[in-house]
Design brief:
Length: 189
């Protein structure tokens, strides 16, 4: 998957026609292009599996391909620039639709869909089925893992119970209320 993904990212940068490392002034369009490339590069750094990058890139490709317009005249005249752009988009589609990438994305989306149904959150299914939204959600989750800190408030006796999922999400007005609730209910975790 990594080889196809790296080639796809390079192809995307080539299609955009930008140098993501340039420090010169840029217009609004180039700034938008650089932002998408920066998001993809951040996803690569956060997720060594490449799945997050694949999801985001696939979503970006879909959006750009849906909105790309080439005049019929250019196609009939076999305009070299238009033909190259079409060939580049076709190559990018083939790269990000490679079986290794496609199967990984489908598997992850399937697990995410199962989770949404398990946690009785069907309103989130459209987001799960959209590769770009799911990729951004995954990127943000990975980003938060870098900044999250773990605290242990009290030490108790070890339990023999297996870990379990909890369908209930609690909200507390402050840390003290949360700790008091955990102590009084005897919840592991």
């Amino acid at each position: 998957m990594h080889d196809e993904l790296n080639r796809a990212l390079a192809k995307w940068i080539e299609i955009l026609g930008i140098d993501p490392n340039a420090a010169n002034a840029m217009d609004k369009v180039e700034w938008g292009y650089r932002t998408t490339v920066e998001q993809l590069q951040e996803a690569q750094k956060l997720d060594m599996t490449g799945l997050t990058t694949a999801l985001i890139l696939y979503g970006i490709w879909e959006a750009y391909a849906e909105n790309l317009t080439i005049s019929v005249r250019k196609m009939l005249d076999e305009d070299p620039e238009a033909l190259k752009l079409l060939a580049d988009y076709r190559e990018l589609k083939e790269l990000i639709s490679a079986p290794s990438i496609r199967d990984a994305m489908a598997d992850f989306q399937s697990h995410a869909k199962e989770s949404m149904l398990f946690y009785e959150a069907p309103q989130s299914l459209p987001m799960v089925m959209d590769p770009s939204s799911l990729g951004m959600l995954r990127r943000d989750a990975l980003r938060s893992l870098e900044t999250m800190q773990s605290y242990q408030f009290i030490q108790g006796a070890a339990t023999t119970e297996n870990l379990k999922y909890n369908k209930v999400v609690y909200q507390f007005p402050n840390i003290q209320s949360m700790i008091a609730s955990i102590i009084s209910h005897g919840e592991n975790g």
